[in-house]
Amino acid sequence: MFRGTFTALVTPFDNDRIDEASFGRLIEFQIENGITGIVPVGTTGESPTLDHAEHTRVIELAVQSAKGRCKVIAGTGSNSTSEAITLTQDAEKLGADAALLVAPYYNKPTQEGLFRHFKAIADSTGLPIILYSIPGRCGIEIAVETVERLCEACQNILAIKEAGGSVERVSQMRSVLPDSFDVLSGDDSLTLPFMAAGAVGVISVASNLIPREVAQMVWASLEGDGVAARNLHFKFYSLFKDLFIEPNPVPVKTALAWAGIIAKPGVRLPLCEMSEMNAKKLRATLGNFNLIRS
């Protein structure tokens, strides 16, 4: 169900307000370049600093802009189960195709707590659900055993975005989960290694900037053209890495503004603009790919 490339969209701002025009152009750019789907209000969309009204508005805009031409997977996770339920139900009403639910952060629940959290959300909605394990941000991972329990207990939990940096975990999941349960990479630089172990795509940051190229790499891998997939992986590896030289989404928003895809690179505090040294490094990398217009 979730094979392909899904862009973890940035949320453009203009004077700290959502830049709806830039957001619409970004989505159109994704669709024109063959993306499978878009993911509004995830980590890359700065969901922690959007209020509830803004959060639902971004999902609404994504659904309206997509017009059924690609999947819309709404980020609806929270460290509060009740809030995650509300956000997920709102996304369903707005017409999203699925929900992405990050592991609760800061409060560090046990695996039993994680199981109950995700099951409560799954029971509250008819949307397909993608779990999101990113221990570097959340302080915990969704254990393979917990993913297996959730897959068995909840018919609408159908996939996981795996951002723990471990090919071993992908292998572990593929060995115990049914073929119908999809594993997606959450790290651009690890997409190809993860797919070699059984992942079927990526929720990508880099595809904000180079959607066609990331989609080509993923489809080449899915279609068994390992040479083409590897060539694209190595060609863009430096870009995959340098888009994370500072906390996401600061570098990718900077790059998108330099490329003329969004109007401004602004982020909300506590995030801030890139350091001069890292901006210079990123600009050099983008220049190597002829991605700078300003």
What is the H/E order? Answer: EEEHEHEHEHEHHEHEHEHHHH
List the strand order in the largest sheet: 9-8-7-6-5-4-1-10
- The termini sit apart by 39 Å
Q: What is the percentage of strand-forming residues?
A: 5-15%
The CATH superfamily appears as: Aldolase class I
What general outline do the C-alpha atoms trace? globular
Low-confidence stretches: none
Write the layout of secondary structure elements.
Elements: E1 4-8, E2 13-14, E3 17-18, H1 20-32, E4 37-39, H2 52-66, E5 71-75, H3 81-94, E6 98-102, H4 111-123, E7 129-133, H5 135-138, H6 144-153, E8 157-162, H7 167-176, E9 182-185, H8 191-196, E10 201-204, H9 211-222, H10 226-242, H11 250-258, H12 276-288
Parallel strand pairs: 1-4, 1-10, 4-5, 5-6, 6-7, 7-8, 8-9
Antiparallel strand pairs: 2-3
Helix pairs in contact: 1-2, 2-3, 3-4, 4-6, 9-10, 11-12
Describe what you observe in this structure.
- The model has no long low-confidence stretch (mean pLDDT 97).
- The strands form two sheets. The chain has an eight-stranded parallel sheet with strand order 9-8-7-6-5-4-1-10. A two-stranded antiparallel ribbon has the order 2-3.
- It has helices at 20-32, 52-66, 81-94, 111-123, 135-138, 144-153, 167-176, 191-196, 211-222, 226-242, 250-258, 276-288; strands at residues 4-8, 13-14, 17-18, 37-39, 71-75, 98-102, 129-133, 157-162, 182-185, 201-204.
- The chain has one domain (4-225): Aldolase class I (TIM Barrel, Alpha-Beta Barrel), CATH 3.20.20.
- It contains twelve helices and ten strands.
- Helix content is 46%, strand content 14%.
- It is globular.
- Helix 1 packs parallel to helix 2 (52-66).
- With 294 residues, it is an alpha/beta fold.
